[in-house]
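Supplementary Text 2. Reproducibility record for the structural model of the 405-residue chain.

All settings were left at their defaults, and a single model was retained for analysis rather than an ensemble. We include the record here because the model underlies the residue-level annotations in Supplementary Table 4.
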Amino acid sequence: MKTLKTLLSFLLIPLSISIFANNIQVTNVTLASKNTVQDYYMIEFDLSWENSWRTSSFESNWDAAWVFVKATIQNQQAWTHGFLNYVDGANDGHTAATGSIIQTAVNTYGTANLGIGVFIYRSADGIGNANFEEIALRWNYGDSGFDDDDVIDISVTAIEMVYVPQGEFYLGDGMGDFGQFELGTSGSPYLVSSENGLTLGGGGASSLGNSNAANMLAADDFNDAVSQSLPADFPKGYDAFYCMKYEVSQAQYASFLAHLDQAQRSERTEVIYVNNINVYPIQTGNHYGIPEHPWRAMDYAAWSDMAAYLDWSGLRPMSEMEYEKACRGSLEPIAEEYAWGNDSWYLEGIYTLSSEGTNSETISNGMGVQVGNANSVSIYQGFGRPLRCGIFAASAENKSRQETG
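Retained model, structure tokens:
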């Protein structure tokens, strides 16, 4: 599947933090109640975001907010991850807002199952803005290393996500010009029908080939003559998963930096100017890293920056196989396909912006309605910077796959 330049797709206020992508906001954060016997707080907050949906037809999926907690002793820059209560994923002690579901994501530390964060999403089909009030998460502060008498600052962060349901899908588009996946050496797309282990390369009739690594800038470690084994626990995209709904905004990345200590932050911060625009979200000399352009997609991020951000968020990178599943779903492949389902990218005009540089920035003229839009740094778009996160969904009139990018 063809890709454009990848943007990181993946403000410090004690007791409250609002992170904006397509205007997702966490507000009214409070430590509502405390249980010193079982060492937990109930953290209450409100959560809202725009362009939300849940459907039982067509894609049969929904969008969600990934919500996680960070905490520190008051007036210290020693933020740690807040482990949430987990029992069985359904009776975890959290309180969902009316019309929503809370699903705890768990990781195993020693013999304990600890909640890394929660997915919050609609409990019934619907479309429009999501507004969930008086959510309560049980935070086990003892599991996070805090004592009963500690005076604590807490931060709640939300990232917009999309649920990709379980099911078969194809890898590759039938073209062999840029290392596309294929069935063996046939040139045909490869059907992923399970999460079972498989053979990469080697020329076998049922192996997952890569068009003999044709024209790849950095070739894989397999080709038609060399094989590798991909184990069953590697995510192949058949099983259901979540992926980010939008690029990571500069505000989101700045929040990440604000919750690191000074030594950690020094490895992630610098000032980069392109066309006299500071494309990095950190102002020189600002301890808390307030972004100059909070609504814009974060760019000029290295792999190490992305990996660190995801680790901090309790997330992981998606695999290439998951990426193609998220883009293509169960549809048949199209030759030279882009992520929006056809082989064309809008190059005929330049975007005209309204409310430029604000959280309501939209495209007033120049949208590619039938061919596809992309938030990239491009001379064709007329800007030396990315646009704000969610701009195509906000600007689209028909809300088609191509129009929303």
